[in-house]
Amino acid sequence: MDLWSIKEAFDHVAKRQKLSTSKSQEVIDQVRQEIEKTLARIQSVDNLMSPVDMKSILTELKLKLNSIGPLQQLEESQKELITSLTKYPKFVGKIFPDISKTSRNVDFDIHTVNHIIACHFYRQGMFDLGDCLLNEAGEPEVTGTRSHFSEMHQVLEGLRDRNLEPALNWITANHEILKQNGSTLELKLHTLQFVEFIRKGSRIDALDYARTYLAPLAFLHMKDVQKLMVCLLYVGKLDSCPYADLIAPTNWQKFTKELTQQFCSLIGQSIRSPFAVTIAAGIEGLPTLLKLANVMAAKKHEWQEWQKMKQLPVPVELGSEFQFHSVFVCPVSRDQASEENPPMLMPCLHVLCKQSMMKLSKSSSREFKCPYCPAEASAAQCRQLYF
């Protein structure tokens, strides 16, 4: 979608509207001036003017107005504006086609949808908006989720202000769980504070901090702590420090991202908002759906059949960022594999779903031909694959 071209088209319409307004005002001012001049002439002679003179003055006014041609000028100006206004919606319509035809009526649990959207707002830190949505929809509060994300944003706000205390409190409270997960957040957090002292040239403060917070971690992270001690020698000349990766400013952003991931993991939430991912995936798949809808719309019978399908008749390719786990779709039936219909590996190394394999073998032990190569196999020779 070329948003820049839309802006250019809009600016063209806006410019045309300004020109039309300016032209209209100019014509109106010309007419008004001629009428005011005529009134002034009539008032100057008052009752001394004969009917013949009055008619002469009015005839002269009529000729001047005809020479100005106000109606023609206004019509021409308005015509150009109307042409621009008519073209603009058509232009926008080409870039933003009607997407309603790509959807169909599906029964959703409205309560679940409300909670998903509210949780999306909480995740973004928009707590008032999330509360307002649930309140106006008459939904119960999502107390646990709200409090978790509220705590997370307090920690993140602290990091933005270079205040590590909220993050340290959270890490301390979840020390055992983070340790079991192999997390190094505690070391990275103290490293950030240690480096801040070094950046400020406070070698003594950095050393005191290391004795208090880094020394207890040395038995698990000796090499990392030793590298930090070397950084003490480069106070005031950090550009020549051999461990520049430890003192890079980007470490704050990396730590914030990792802490967010760990936080979401501990509360059973994905790092990305499910609502945002759904919208993004829908936008990426929209061109394919629009093309499919246009093709199906010309075939009423197939259109009705498509509306009843539980899956799309064509694949919708999405980027790797939308692939969260391995799946297998049977190349014959186009059904996604499941526990009841698992993927089966044939001796020729082609894979089909079990139901497709049984149809090809006609539920018997006789051999059947692979749909993708000349090899033959029996159902007994096929082995189930596990993803």
UniProtKB/TrEMBL annotation:
GO MF: ubiquitin protein ligase activity; zinc ion binding
Domain CTLH intervals: 148-205
Pfam entry (one): zf-RING_UBOX
Keywords assigned: Cytoplasm, Metal-binding, Zinc, Zinc-finger
One GO cellular component term: GID complex
Single GO BP term: proteasome-mediated ubiquitin-dependent protein catabolic process
PROSITE patterns linked: CTLH, ZF_RING_GID
Positions of RING-Gid-type zinc fingers: 330-373
Subcellular location: Cytoplasm
Tagged with keyword Zinc-finger: yes
Domain of life: Eukaryota
Record domain RING-Gid-type: where: 330-373
Protein name, per record: Uncharacterized protein
Species this protein is from: Rubroshorea leprosula
